[in-house]
Structure formats: C-alpha cells, structure tokens
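re the bet — no i am not wrong, look at it urself. input seq straight from the record:
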Amino acid sequence: MPLPDDIQIYQLDLEIHGACNYKCEMCPQAWGRERSFLKSMPFDLFRKIVDDALQHGLKSASLHGSGEPTLNRNMPEMVRYLKSCDVEAVSFTNGLRLTEELAEQLFDAGLDTLRISAIGYDEASYARWMASDQYDEVRENVRKAIAARDHGGHATQVHLYHLITDLNRREEELTLYQENWVKHTGAFAEVWLMHNWSGEYEQNVPYHRDAMTRSKSQRSCGRPFSPLLEVRAGGLDGHAGAVVACCMVLGHDSEAVLGHLDHQTIEEVVRGDVYEELRSAHSEKRFHDISYCKDCDQLFDVPEALVWSNIPGRKYGESKITEGLDHRAFTPQKMGTGSDLVEIE
C-alpha cells in the first residue's frame, strides 16, 4: 500500500530515559529490559527528533516511552523546548522523584499534562504491584505538586493512572482508588483494565483471553498507519532514537525496531522497507508474520478497557494525549488524516 506524498506525524511518544527506578510486577521493566534500550536521550537528539517531526505537523509530544522520564536531568528543558515550538507537552511518571522543586520546574516550563502511574489501591496492593513501599510518599508528592501548581497559578493538568488488578474485585478496587488516591490528592484520574504487552504478560488478564475466544477475527489496531511515532531513547548496534512499532513492545523492543532517528530522518524510517512490511502485514491481516503482533490483545475489541474516569471528556476509543482522534473511525486508507488509536500504556 503506497504512502501519501505528505507524511503526517501529529503525535510523538518520546522516551527520554529507557531505564526505570521501579520494577512493577505487570511491566516488562521488571523482567529485564534489553540493555541497549536503557539509555538516557541526549538533549541534542531530542531536539533533532522534535525539529524533524515539526516538518510533518507535530502537535503533541508525550515524554515517557516506557522508562522513567524524571531520571533525565534535561526533562524541564525538554518541556520548555516543546512549548517554544507550540507543541502540547505531556509526561508520564511513577511520581517517586516528583519533588516540589521538580514539579515547579515542569510547571514553569509549561507542561500541559502530568500523568502519574500508581498501580495499587492501598498500601499493600501498591507494594505488591509497584514492588515499592513508597505508597504514602508518592501520594504526598502528587498532593504537594497540585498545591504547588495552584499556588503558582499554572495551568498544568495532573492526572492519576490506575489499573484494575483483580476483575472479581473490580468495584471494590475502584472505590478504594477513588478514596485513597483521588480524594486524597485532589487529582483527576482514570482507571483501566490491564493489557498483555504484545502477548508477553498473560497473568491477571482473563478478559483479554475471553475477548479473543469470542472474536471470530482479528483486526488491525491501526497503529502502523496512524500519525503517531513511538521513539525509544536507546536502540540497536550503538544507535539511539529507535522507532518501534508501538508502546506495547516493551521488553522485546529489538524485534520491533523500524529505524533509528540518530542517523535517519522520520521520512526515511516511515517509508523504509521494515515499516512497509509492518503496514502490509496489518493491511492483509497477516498478524502471525509479525512476532510482536501475533499475540497482542490490541487486535481484539475490549470495549470496557476504560473502567472509570473523572477527567472531563475522557472516553474509551479516544487518545489520552491528542484530543479528538478516534481510532474506531480509522482505516489504513486514511493514513495522514488525523485518525488515531487508543493509547493505554
């Protein structure tokens, strides 16, 4: 399938640090991420990638990927650069290093949305799923960050991100998330079902297996055709800025590398043979030809993936980052029209 003459990249999922200071049970970082992807992205490479994406219509950039962005000391400067380019700036953190000082630096830089991932509805469940006893510390970091934001008169939205860990206790977990996190911190929040990391994580996700059993056929997630680019901090063979197929390939990034932006342009990667094979496989529903796609639960409909949210306008099927991009209306033939898919990393 030929690409349109005008490649459009509206959204960057840009990992600025590949390693993480947590080892969460449900995350491939805990299982041993490939060493060449544990790098921190230099500011010069960050700027090169952003400048390149601006030539293709960049509107929004999310500083996460799958590592912990606050481990990159240039994070506030990166946010400031995005805002100087009139790009929406979003970030996703576990909140442990979110001191009042760092929060104020990010707010001053113009960060639009700060999302804190906190899996665990009380102290014991947090310790299990996040493999950390910093439950109270992180909750206080979020609460103090919101207070600092309000005191400084900043417009940054602060959102909590939670996961249901046991479907049999879904309503109980939801109530506890609301009580222990939302009310305590004053933040907006969203609660999701887990996903299976491209088939790598099967525990505690029976609803995905049920959906696969009920479904007669797979359909493309739409990701290979969307105006979204997933970029890792590290890469293969000494390279950095690896473009990978999607956020779900964490833990086996090397299988999903489509190119490297430290020495290639976005256009060279997107029009490259490896990327084209991925698009062809999805167009022809040859998902089993792609090692990191064949067992991914994103090829099936799970209509209740978003369990609850008090974030204004949030609904399943809508990107968490760029508003108004609905993946359900997406088809491969609409490449470059602004269609997107749900982002649930």
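see?? Residues 316-345 have pLDDT under 50 and may be disordered. told u. also Residues 135-152 form the longest helix (18 residues). so pay up
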